[in-house]
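ok so dumb question maybe but i'm new to this and my supervisor (M.) told me to 'just get the structure for Glycine/betaine ABC transporter substrate-binding protein' and walked off. so i did the thing. is this what she meant?? sequence i used:
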Amino acid sequence: MRFLGIAAIMLLLVVLAACGGSGSNESSESNGDNGGSNKETSNEEGSNESSNGDTVSEIGQKELTIPYVAWSSAVASNHVMEVVLEEAGYDVTLKQVNSGAMYTSVSDGSADATVCVWLPHTDASYWEEYKEDLEHLGPNLEGAPLGLVVPEYMDVNSIEDLKNNTNSVGDNTDYTITGIEPGAGQMKLTEEEVMPEYGLDDWTLQASSSATMATSLGDAIENEEPIVVTLWSPHWTFSEYDLKYLEDPKNIYGDPDNINTIVRKGLKEDAPKAQKILDQFKWSKDQIGEVMVKINEGMDPAKAAEEWVSNNQDAVSEWTKGTE
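this is what came out, is it supposed to look like this??
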């Protein structure tokens, strides 16, 4: 009986120990589940705060690639954005490309964003082709016209004057329109729509580069010679020379575009702080003009951007609001 009593006590102790161990393990697993659940909830709340416009300070993906075209406005805006994003903690690589490569690289995710997309007219064909793989953050500069431009001293006022050879404008320019980079939105619009609509069959759109076009324009003006160029505003040449847009009675170039910001899909999740800064980036023609003039005067674009950012902290603080 004594032996049975001892055995019963020992058996009871084993059962109690097992129950205690099981309770401890369940408690630990339960705490782990709750911890994971709480963490997940916290992340979801953080995401909601971001979408509601609250503070977003997470850098996330640190390296960013920004492609841009060689338009003077694009050079200025993308270099300024490079400075602002680097001050926010990112490593930014700028890549000068043509319009097609700019769209393809952002749409396929090999680049992250750009701030030089002209819509709704100039880049319409590119936008239609790639928009499903892009996120449009809206305009960063409003009211940006483009068209065919001549020096003020030329006695022609409309694109129709080119067809009619008014005041021998065709003869005096070899029936040539001096353009920019082949594949640029304005070049496609001019060649595929403007010239056919106005019957400019005798005219040639000569592709070159934005810099070459500006140099040719300056040389012609210095010698007071006739020239027709593809041009847009904002551009430093309008501060330097007396120029005028040729009237577009058929409105093929359309109402003034806006310059827009686009980013790749998923950037908001990968680099929340960068997305918010890019989304809040807005400035005026006067502001971008200050940067373009400095660059045209010979200042390195990166230096001009740094100087502008340093002198315009009120504007920059609006772009970075909620990212501290």
